[in-house]
# Entry
Amino acid sequence: MEEPARINSQADLKKLLDEKGKLWLVAAMVEGSIGYHTPKHAEKLIEKALTGETIDWCERCDACFGRDLFKMINFDIRKMLFLEDRDAAKARRLVDMVKIISGLSGEAQSSVSMAYPTLNI
# Structure
Protein backbone atom coordinates (compact mmCIF):
# COMPACT_ATOMS: atom_id res chain seq x y z
CA MET A 1 0.00 0.00 0.00
CA GLU A 2 1.30 3.41 -0.95
CA GLU A 3 1.89 5.88 1.90
CA PRO A 4 -0.93 8.46 1.83
CA ALA A 5 0.03 12.09 1.40
CA ARG A 6 0.11 14.22 4.51
CA ILE A 7 -2.29 17.13 4.92
CA ASN A 8 -0.09 19.92 6.26
CA SER A 9 -1.67 23.09 4.93
CA GLN A 10 -4.85 24.81 3.84
CA ALA A 11 -3.93 24.04 0.22
CA ASP A 12 -3.50 20.31 0.94
CA LEU A 13 -6.83 20.23 2.77
CA LYS A 14 -8.60 22.15 0.00
CA LYS A 15 -7.22 19.74 -2.60
CA LEU A 16 -8.45 16.70 -0.66
CA LEU A 17 -11.80 18.41 -0.09
CA ASP A 18 -12.13 18.96 -3.85
CA GLU A 19 -11.20 15.31 -4.52
CA LYS A 20 -13.26 13.56 -1.85
CA GLY A 21 -15.94 16.08 -0.82
CA LYS A 22 -16.85 17.59 2.52
CA LEU A 23 -19.06 14.69 3.60
CA TRP A 24 -16.14 12.26 3.16
CA LEU A 25 -13.88 14.50 5.23
CA VAL A 26 -16.51 14.89 7.95
CA ALA A 27 -16.92 11.10 8.00
CA ALA A 28 -13.15 10.72 8.30
CA MET A 29 -13.11 12.95 11.37
CA VAL A 30 -16.07 11.20 12.99
CA GLU A 31 -14.48 7.79 12.39
CA GLY A 32 -10.98 8.92 13.33
CA SER A 33 -12.26 10.26 16.62
CA ILE A 34 -14.42 7.16 17.25
CA GLY A 35 -17.43 9.46 17.50
CA TYR A 36 -15.86 12.18 19.67
CA HIS A 37 -16.59 14.64 16.86
CA THR A 38 -20.19 14.95 15.80
CA PRO A 39 -20.63 15.75 12.10
CA LYS A 40 -21.46 19.34 13.06
CA HIS A 41 -18.28 19.69 15.15
CA ALA A 42 -16.13 18.01 12.48
CA GLU A 43 -17.47 20.42 9.87
CA LYS A 44 -16.63 23.38 12.11
CA LEU A 45 -13.09 22.08 12.53
CA ILE A 46 -12.68 21.65 8.78
CA GLU A 47 -13.93 25.19 8.17
CA LYS A 48 -11.56 26.45 10.85
CA ALA A 49 -8.60 24.75 9.16
CA LEU A 50 -9.65 26.07 5.75
CA THR A 51 -9.52 29.63 7.10
CA GLY A 52 -5.91 29.08 8.14
CA GLU A 53 -6.29 28.38 11.84
CA THR A 54 -3.84 25.77 13.07
CA ILE A 55 -4.69 25.51 16.77
CA ASP A 56 -7.74 23.91 18.32
CA TRP A 57 -8.61 23.60 21.99
CA CYS A 58 -11.11 20.74 21.92
CA GLU A 59 -10.15 18.09 24.45
CA ARG A 60 -9.13 15.55 21.80
CA CYS A 61 -6.91 17.96 19.90
CA ASP A 62 -5.33 19.31 23.07
CA ALA A 63 -4.70 15.95 24.72
CA CYS A 64 -3.74 13.85 21.69
CA PHE A 65 -2.26 16.28 19.17
CA GLY A 66 -0.79 19.12 21.22
CA ARG A 67 -3.51 21.49 19.96
CA ASP A 68 -2.25 21.07 16.36
CA LEU A 69 -5.42 21.08 14.27
CA PHE A 70 -3.68 19.79 11.15
CA LYS A 71 -2.11 16.87 13.02
CA MET A 72 -5.56 15.84 14.20
CA ILE A 73 -7.17 16.22 10.78
CA ASN A 74 -4.23 14.43 9.16
CA PHE A 75 -4.59 11.49 11.56
CA ASP A 76 -8.28 11.14 10.74
CA ILE A 77 -7.73 11.42 6.97
CA ARG A 78 -4.95 8.85 6.96
CA LYS A 79 -7.11 6.45 8.99
CA MET A 80 -10.00 6.87 6.53
CA LEU A 81 -7.74 6.40 3.50
CA PHE A 82 -6.41 3.20 5.09
CA LEU A 83 -9.97 2.04 5.75
CA GLU A 84 -10.96 2.72 2.14
CA ASP A 85 -8.03 0.64 0.97
CA ARG A 86 -8.79 -2.21 3.40
CA ASP A 87 -12.63 -2.19 3.34
CA ALA A 88 -14.13 0.17 0.75
CA ALA A 89 -17.68 -0.97 1.53
CA LYS A 90 -17.32 -0.01 5.20
CA ALA A 91 -15.90 3.38 4.23
CA ARG A 92 -18.96 3.99 2.02
CA ARG A 93 -21.27 2.91 4.87
CA LEU A 94 -19.52 5.38 7.17
CA VAL A 95 -20.08 8.23 4.72
CA ASP A 96 -23.73 7.20 4.31
CA MET A 97 -24.21 7.02 8.10
CA VAL A 98 -22.61 10.42 8.63
CA LYS A 99 -24.89 11.87 5.96
CA ILE A 100 -27.90 10.64 7.95
CA ILE A 101 -26.48 11.82 11.29
CA SER A 102 -25.71 15.25 9.78
CA GLY A 103 -29.42 15.81 9.25
CA LEU A 104 -30.18 15.44 12.96
CA SER A 105 -30.34 18.21 15.55
CA GLY A 106 -27.22 19.00 17.57
CA GLU A 107 -28.54 17.12 20.60
CA ALA A 108 -29.40 14.06 18.53
CA GLN A 109 -25.97 14.16 16.88
CA SER A 110 -24.41 14.15 20.34
CA SER A 111 -26.49 11.12 21.34
CA VAL A 112 -25.42 9.19 18.25
CA SER A 113 -21.85 10.33 18.82
CA MET A 114 -21.82 8.80 22.29
CA ALA A 115 -23.09 5.50 20.88
CA TYR A 116 -20.77 5.60 17.85
CA PRO A 117 -18.24 3.04 19.11
CA THR A 118 -21.04 0.46 19.44
CA LEU A 119 -22.81 1.09 16.11
CA ASN A 120 -20.84 -1.62 14.26
CA ILE A 121 -21.06 0.16 10.91
The chain has a mean pLDDT of 93. The longest helix spans residues 69-86. Residues 10-107 form one domain. The helical segments are 10-20, 22-32, 39-50, 59-65, 69-86, 88-102, 106-115.
